[in-house]
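Notes to self after the call with IL:
- keep both proteins in one doc
- input above output, always
- annotate only the second one for now

Protein 1:
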Amino acid sequence: MDIFAPYEQAHKQEGEARQRMEEAERQLRDAVSSLMSQRQGRLFLRWLIHHCQCFSAQNLAAGNCGPSAAPDAVRLGFAEGRRYVGMTLLHLVQRSDPGNLSQLLQNREDEHDI
């Protein structure tokens, strides 16, 4: 019995997992590039980023203050999770093509943009 077999198998599995991850990353970049190439795709990405509230601060005073209101920590946690999704999307947009981010943030395509 080869005592190094488990370590060699782990190394092989790690390499395969890395290849799958790189392929998934490439497919995501391609999907973002496809969205960015279309006006409707850019509109959708802007809408999603807007709803993730990437560029707004959480206002605890604006929330419910009654006894059934969620504690501030829970609301902040939810807001940060939503913001994390939006920031991850922005990072993916930038990784797909460095010029995409500035194009996405310029929402002058028409007067109905979000």
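Protein 2 (the one to annotate):
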Amino acid sequence: MFNVLLLVIVLSGLSHIVADYLKKDVLCYVFKPLTTLLVIALAWAQTSTFTPVHYWVFAGLALSLIGDIFLMLKKDYFLQGLIAFFVAHVAYVIAFTHTSEFALSTVLLVVLLAYAGLLIAILNKQLGKLRIPVYAYATALTLMVLTSYSFFQVSGYELGLYAFVGAVLFMVSDSILAYRRFVKGYAWSQGAILATYYLAQSLIALSLTN
């Protein structure tokens, strides 16, 4: 079951990337939400015992699905999508801190703050009315990466590393998306955004399976 779902996720994600490149809107409307739904199904199929951590991760995945739908529509619902993913990151942060300990990496914190600060500096002049929402989103995303590292260190889950790698890939995906929207897009941008996003969500989902 696991291998079948994993294969279907890969095929669905690739189908969305190709459909988006070919500008086949109807297929994008099918494969974008379908891929995220399949990631949720993969996590569900691999989970035998549900804890608050699992519930919060499933909440994050469900909110991400809502964000996917907003961002794929022709009308500009970027702010609504941003809000949905902001709340999704908050859910992930709660999941990753739902332990008795917290492992703070000073080096990682400095790197994340430097990276977020540089990206904001690049985007700042183009943000306009979205400046505050983007700042808030960047904060939530940075906290998500930081807490995923703590989860990896203290949770005891063998697959905890997946959560951290997935969170880092989420940051990569959103960075490319932000640069494309506010500064400049490239032919490869959308494919890179989608590939890193689907891999990120899959790794986060798999990090909590039993």
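Annotation: The helical segments are 2-21, 25-45, 52-72, 78-96, 106-127, 131-154, 160-182, 189-206. DSSP finds eight helices and no strands in the chain.
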